[in-house]
Amino acid sequence: MTGIGSRRLGDRAAGTGPKAGGRKAGGYFNPQFQAHTLKVFLGHHQVSDRPDVMMVTTLGSCVAACIWDPAAAVGGMNHFLLPEVPDSETGGADAAARYGSVAMEWLINDILSRGGKRNRLEAKVFGGARVIDSSFDVGRRNGAFVLDYLQREGLSVTGQDLGGTSARRVHFFPHTGRAMRKLLRAEALNETVTQEMQFRSTLRQRPIEGDVELFGD
């Protein structure tokens, strides 16, 4: 691996609950990293201050921001598909975190709600690959969006791995701010693209709801 470089689990501090955009915390124990592992699904985020927690996600054209307060030792990861909420859809508190503008706000606010301070936040960002042969390069737009957002909000970017044509798996340790990424093989890319395309197609059908390390197998 090359590295760029809580509320408690089971309650809303772990990024659970509909407004947090998180899935119910549970996860599994990863013996390789000796860590309780939380998956960060597309359109969700997780936040924790536990030293034994690792967050994991897989990205194609999507972007994940890993944000951390080194003094409070609390951090989290999101996973979003598109940059901004379209004008045709209603924004605000009920806008889903599938959009970067909402995903970033929810993640930062969740970190602040459990002791983080905005002026101390550091970010590492991943993803934004060109994984679909199309004139609309959503990966590039996602990458440009997240860097612009962080600059406008005054957050320090301490690491980034954006663009390219490969899917990525990202591991983030929110207590220490350590982040690791692995470029995935073609078969994993196909699965990731399929998931993103399926998720994107549902957007037209459902309303909005409320230092880098590289590692081997």
Brief descriptors of the model:
single chain, 217 residues, alpha+beta, 60s Ribosomal Protein L30, Chain: A, seven-stranded mixed sheet, five-stranded mixed sheet, 3 helices, 12 strands, globular
Task: Give the gist of this structure.
With 217 residues, the chain is of the alpha+beta class. It contains three helices and twelve strands. The chain has one domain: 60s Ribosomal Protein L30, Chain: A (2-Layer Sandwich).
Polypeptide structure, described:
The protein has one domain: 60s Ribosomal Protein L30, Chain: A, CATH 3.30.1330.200. The radius of gyration is 16 Å and the shape is globular. Strands 1, 2, 3, 5, 10, 11 and 12 form a seven-stranded mixed β-sheet that branches. A five-stranded mixed β-sheet has the order 4-7-6-8-9, with helices on one face. Residues 5-24, 91-95 and 203-210 have low confidence and may be disordered. The chain is 22% helix and 29% strand. Strand 8, helix 2 and strand 9 (156-162) form a beta-alpha-beta unit. With 217 residues, it is of the alpha+beta class.
Q: Kindly provide the name of the CATH class.
A: Alpha Beta
Q: How many helices?
A: 3
Looking at the overall shape, the CATH architecture is 2-Layer Sandwich
How many domains?
1
Beta strand %: 25-35%
Roughly how much helix do the residues carry, as a percent range?
A: 10-25%
Radius of gyration: 16 Å
What distance lies between the first and last C-alpha atoms, to the nearest angstrom? 9 Å
- Name the helix and strand elements from N-terminus to C-terminus, one letter apiece: EEEEEEEHEHEEEHE
CATH fold-level label: 60s Ribosomal Protein L30, Chain: A
Q: Segments where pLDDT lies below 50 for 5+ residues?
A: 5-24, 91-95, 203-210
Which structural class matches the secondary elements?
alpha+beta
Largest sheet: 7 strands, mixed
What is the quaternary state of this protein?
Answer: single chain
Globular, elongated, flat, extended or rod-shaped: what is the shape? globular
Count the strands?
12
Mean pLDDT: 79
